Amino acid sequence: MQIDLEQFRNPCSCGKVHEVSVRGIWIEEDAVRRLYQMLTEEEALGEFIAPVIVWDDNIKEAVEEKLEDVEDICLDEICLDSENLHANNRGVEILEENLPDETDLILAVGSGTIHDLCRYVAHQRRIPFISVPTAASVDGFVSTVAAMTWDGMKKTIPARAPIYVFADTNIIKEAPHRLTASGISDLLGKYIALADWKIAHLVTGEYICGEIVELEYEALKEVVSSIGDFAENDGESYEKLMYALLLSGLAMQMTGNSRPASCAEHHMSHLWEMEVINQPLDALHGEKVSVGMMQIRIKYAKIAEAIRAGSCNVRPYEGLEKNLLQETFGKKGLYESTIRENTPDPMAGIHVNELKAVLPQIADIIDEIPPAEELQRILKEGYCCYRMEQIGLSDALIEPSLRLSPYVRNRLSFNRISKMLEIE
Length: 424
Ligand SMILES: [Zn+2]
Ligand SMILES: [Zn+2]
Fold this sequence. Notes:
Helix content is about 50%, strand content about 10%.
């Protein structure tokens, strides 16, 4: 299938004209065949005379045969060492050193890390890049920002989106299932992210696009309904997953930030990545997201229940928990940057009576998220992670994670709003 990008470019009912910089997206068997054809056609991509493939040794071994023709017409291929390959200064340096000066187009062949590195370097060199995802593992393929670790700090750095995406389902369905499961997990996290967005809109009037929200729900529904088919290597279910992940990425392009794709559930994951209350984890992005999502879902359910029972009180906001932040983030030298991240405080301007008035509507939004048992069943069926211990965390960290995670990003989640709530 080809994603119809024109539909997103029309003026939207939210009042915005959404910008989509990607020129074309194909998700199909033999998509790399189409890539080859376009590279050889003058009116398509033939204008580029010095394309270079960037991948790593694992990926090269898995897909080189399928990309033989493409490789033949490329100026060069750069094979990075998959051992210790990260989207960080070192990775950028290695790629910069090896990428020929005359390169006029980068073909990013791989999963998230390769994409982040290529996206960053392409931006630096002011040349376009093409995305060839080799696993349905994350939703960031069409992202306009690179998630990098810069001098040990996690940063989101402006970069560029691919001009085209060729997602070859024959390649994607052969990826290790752990990667696919991570993509499913990242995607399911949208249930929380979208609910948080709706609640933030309700409470503060923050911008929301109802059409983007609906599109994402549709795509989610498709993936959930075919969750059992991944085990049978059914190409169509991979196509649906890839579509949903790319759509989530497009939603970020359309809003200009990650609001439609990331909130309380991702904050849990980001907190664990900062290692202020836990040891380093050997878990994939999506694995952390789905485990975080489960704990958020359970907490939201308790609050929704209390709202219905009339036992949820609203108290005035008391500001940042500075002592707590000092004790935790401070130990890692991250106190100042955490304060900066939380300035201005996204909670400022939320008043007791206004919040009280919308509690029933908040409970309605929460009730639209599949219940925790249902999410767990879906995750289990997709061989995804859902318990803390599966990613190396003890249950004792649930409470501190819920309390600290809202501070890792300046974005209003219901988890953060819940700092004004008290259950009798
Ligand atoms: Zn819109
Ligand atoms: Zn994510």
